[in-house]
């Protein structure tokens, strides 16, 4: 099995005129950014107080793209391959073609930070985004009563893109947690003219799904759904691929987007998942048990997924419902 992460991307731009956004780093690849934090943090109190209009940049001047000359920073082959590997884990870069990937890789600049050092500070202007290569970083937001830890960033995750999409200050601070962190920095212009379209489309796709997913109907606040869009990713599978093996512990909650998945136990097919929004992997992440079934792709198909590390900031809010659903879905087959 060699699933390939593909283009992902809720009705983001249309909703901008309806919602009040906060550039508060969260996320993706929780999986997130200043921007997963920027979004995961869109807390009601802040959202009610602040309104940031979309930057003129957010609408484009995409006609400049053909004439755009990105800066180029020489790198070793090993560095370039490492950046590409990290980019594969990020929703923003998954829609780029080969030429665009080369442009972005060339424009990235290595930045090294050490323990307790600030990468970005709440309230500052944001002109770059970062992709984490090595190390761990904590994201804090001060709501007026001291810093609150929002999330930890790990290799492959990115932060800072919302500050490039919107004319707003950094809404959170990112501090190095590990002894050292190596980050790849991308400038505003390259992001706007090369990467932004993929980022917008990702949010458009996932917001639309989340707004209509039956599982989330008990969540009334649209911002609680919005923050989940940056923790969603996609994978493709081919017929016969074993997505999840009986007896394993899943590292993701998988959500059916296109295709069919057979649910098997002891090499016998019990039933199939065929509906958009059908999900699995919940036994491991929600109930903390080994998976009782194997899940196999029945043809070419596409799944969304939420990584385990993003569960607490996304679906944990409806954990009681998820636990009930485990018994309803699988009880008679145990």
Q: What's this model, at a glance?
A:
With 334 residues, this protein is an alpha+beta fold. The protein is built from ten helices and 16 strands.
Structural write-up:
It is a single chain. The protein folds into 2 domains: 189 residues, Jelly Rolls; 96 residues, Jelly Rolls. By secondary structure, it is α+β, with helices and mostly antiparallel strands. Strands 1-8-3-6 form a 4-stranded antiparallel β-sheet. The chain has a 4-stranded antiparallel β-sheet with strand order 2-7-4-5, with no helix packed on it. It is built from 10 helices and 16 strands. 27% of the residues lie in helices and 25% in strands. Belongs to the cAMP-dependent kinase regulatory chain family. It holds the Pfam family cNMP_binding. InterPro entries: cAMP-dep_PK_reg_su-like (IPR050503), cAMP_dep_PK_reg_su (IPR012198), cNMP-bd_CS (IPR018488), cNMP-bd_dom (IPR000595), cNMP-bd_dom_sf (IPR018490), RmlC-like_jellyroll (IPR014710). GO terms for molecular function: cAMP binding; cAMP-dependent protein kinase inhibitor activity; protein kinase A catalytic subunit binding.
């Amino acid at each position: 099995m060699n699933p390939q992460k593909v283009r992902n991307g809720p009705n983001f731009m249309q909703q901008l005129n309806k919602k009040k956004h906060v550039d508060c780093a969260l996320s993706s690849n929780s999986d997130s950014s200043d921007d997963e934090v920027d979004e995961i943090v869109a807390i009601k109190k802040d959202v009610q107080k602040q309104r940031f209009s979309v930057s003129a940049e957010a609408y484009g001047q995409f006609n400049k793209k053909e004439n755009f000359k990105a800066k180029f920073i020489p790198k070793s082959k090993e560095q370039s391959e490492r950046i590409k590997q990290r980019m594969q884990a990020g929703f923003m870069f998954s829609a780029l073609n080969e030429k665009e990937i080369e442009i972005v890789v060339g424009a990235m600049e290595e930045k090294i930070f050490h323990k307790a050092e600030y990468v970005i500070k709440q309230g500052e202007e944001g002109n770059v985004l970062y992709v984490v290569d090595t190390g761990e970083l904590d994201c804090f937001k001060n709501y007026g009563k001291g810093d609150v830890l929002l999330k930890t960033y790990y290799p492959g995750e990115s932060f800072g893109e919302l500050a490039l999409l919107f004319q707003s200050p950094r809404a959170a601070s990112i501090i190095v947690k590990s002894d050292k962190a190596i980050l790849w920095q991308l400038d505003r212009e390259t992001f706007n003219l090369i990467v932004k379209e993929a980022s917008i489309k990702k949010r458009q796709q996932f917001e639309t799904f989340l707004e209509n997913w039956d599982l989330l109907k008990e969540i009334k606040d649209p911002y609680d759904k919005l923050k989940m869009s940056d923790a969603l990713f996609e994978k493709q599978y081919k017929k016969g691929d074993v997505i999840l093996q009986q007896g394993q512990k899943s590292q993701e909650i998988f959500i059916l987007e296109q295709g069919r998945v057979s649910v098997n136990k002891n090499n016998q097919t019990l039933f199939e998942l065929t509906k958009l929004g059908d999900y699995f992997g919940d036994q491991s992440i929600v109930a903390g048990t080994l998976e009782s079934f194997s899940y196999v792709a029945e043809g070419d198909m596409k799944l969304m997924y939420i990584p385990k590390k993003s569960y607490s900031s996304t679906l944990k809010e409806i954990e009681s419902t998820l636990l009930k659903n485990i018994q309803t879905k699988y009880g008679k087959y145990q």
